[in-house]
């Protein structure tokens, strides 16, 4: 993940704790877009959202519609089938590292297409 961020000129912008530390959001900014990689202890997930460069670093469920879930963009762009996403989120436990590796692989494989899709929406 670190290599992907460096190659694509992402800089760490801010880390935000919410819900008394139960949710941690890490924001990165590049010339092309922003990334938010977050961990929610309550929901038991590690996930990623992409946003326009002018997206605010605040709660991702604030209704601004400037942030898009990585999985939603992957499906919308035809990069991944819904069934593959569902299979990934099966009931098998995955470590945070495994989840981050999946996110990193998706970003690495489809980044240019994701940025085009994000800027067209």
Notes on the structure:
The chain has helices spanning about 1-5, 70-75, 80-90, 95-120, and strands spanning about 10-20, 25-30, 35-40, 45-50, 65-70. With about 120 residues, the chain is an alpha+beta fold. It has one domain (about 1-120). A 5-stranded antiparallel sheet has the order 1-2-3-4-5. α2 (about 70-75) packs across α4. The chain is globular.
How would you concisely characterize the structure shown here?
This protein is of the alpha+beta class and 121 residues long.
Class derived from helix and strand content: alpha+beta
Helix and strand run: HEEEEEHHH
| β-strand number | 5
List segments where confidence is low: pLDDT < 50 over at least 5 consecutive residues: none
What overall form do the CA principal axes indicate?
A: globular
Helix content percent band: 25-40%
Tell me the fraction of residues in β-strands, as a range. 25-35%
Q: How large is the radius of gyration?
A: 14 Å
Largest sheet: 5 strands, antiparallel
| Mean pLDDT rating | 88
Number of helical regions: 4
Q: What's the structural domain tally?
A: 1
């Amino acid at each position: 993940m670190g290599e992907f961020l460096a190659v694509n000129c992402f800089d760490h912008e801010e880390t935000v704790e919410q819900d008394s530390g139960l949710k941690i959001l890490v924001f990165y900014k590049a010339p092309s877009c922003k990334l938010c990689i977050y961990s929610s202890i309550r929901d038991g997930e590690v996930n990623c959202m992409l946003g326009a460069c002018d997206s605010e670093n605040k709660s991702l469920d604030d209704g601004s519609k400037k942030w898009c879930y990585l999985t939603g963009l992957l499906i919308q762009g035809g990069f991944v089938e819904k069934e593959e996403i569902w299979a990934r989120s099966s009931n098998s436990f995955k470590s945070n590292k495994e989840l981050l590796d999946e996110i990193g692989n998706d970003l690495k494989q489809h980044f240019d297409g994701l940025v085009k899709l994000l800027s067209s929406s």
